[in-house]
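Lab notes, practical 5.
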Amino acid sequence: MIDFKKPSLADKAWVKELLDLGNYRGCDYSFANMIIWWESYRPEIARLGNFLAIRVATDRGRGYLFPAGAGDLAAAVDALEADAAACGYPFQLVAITGRQMGELEDCCPGQFSFDPQRASFDYLYDIDRLADLPGKKLHAKRNHINRFVEQNPSWEYRPLTAENLAECLEMDQEWYRRSQARLTDGKTYDLRSEDIALRTAVGNFEALELEGGLIRVYGEVVAFTIGSRLSSDTFDVHFEKAYGELQGAYAMINREFARQIRQAHPEIRYLNREDDMGLEGLRKAKESYYPDLMVEKYFACRRG
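Output from the prediction step:
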C-alpha cells in the first residue's frame, strides 16, 4: 500500500519539482488546487520514485491521476493498481488527457478502456486573444467592455496584494447574496465548498504563489480574480467573480487579468479557465470566448 498523505505547504518544493517534469496543462496538476480544494476532492499525494502519485475523490469513488514525473511508467501504474486493491476499491485513472492516453497506450498497449469526462474538460485560451479581444468573434466582448466603461467611468483595476485581499472576501459574500436574490426557481445553492476554497486561497496567497486582480467602481470592489502558474506555458485561473448586474464586468476582469499575466509572465501562452462542471450557463459563457484548446479528460480502467 502506498503511503499517501494530505498535501501541505511543506510539500510544495518536491511536488512542484515533479509537476514540472510532467508539464501538464490540466488544472488537476495545480499544487495550489490541491491545497485550495482539499475539502471538496480530498487529494492525497505520495512520491513513487520520480513520479508524483495523486489519489482523489470522484463521483465514481476514489481514483488516481496519471503519475506526473519521469521514469518507469508501467511500474508506477502497477503500484497504483496494487494500492487500489489493498484499499478494496476498483482501480481507475481519472482526468486522463489525450497526451496521457498516448503515453499509457505506449507502456500498456490495449490494456485500458477510456470513458470521457466531458464536464471536466478544461478550456484553454490564447492569452493574447483574451488580452486584446481581436476579430469578429470577440466583437460582443469588446462591446460589453465599452458599455462597462461608459456606465462606470470611475473604474480602476489593481493587482491583488496582502492589503486588498480582504475586500475580495467581502465582495464574495455580497456576490453570493445578490446571486441568491436573483434566483426565480425557489432554489438556493450551497457554495460552502467554494467559500472554504476561496478563504484558503486568500489565507495562503503568498505561500501558494497566487496572483490576482480586482476592479473597483467608486471605490467598491465589483470584480476579482485569482490564479497561479500551472505549467511552462499555461496559467490557471482558480476564481473569477463579478456582479452580474454590471454589464461587462466579467469581460473586463477577464481582459485586465490576461494583460497583467502577459506583462508579468511573457512566456505564458495560455490561460486555463478550468472546466464548466456540466453547467449549461457556465459552458455557454466559456464557449463564447471560443477556446483555442480543450484539455479533454477521460476515466481509464483496465479491460476485463
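Observations recorded by the TA: The chain has two domains: 9-121+298-302, 123-274. Residues 9-121+298-302 form a domain with the Aminopeptidase fold (CATH 3.40.630.30).
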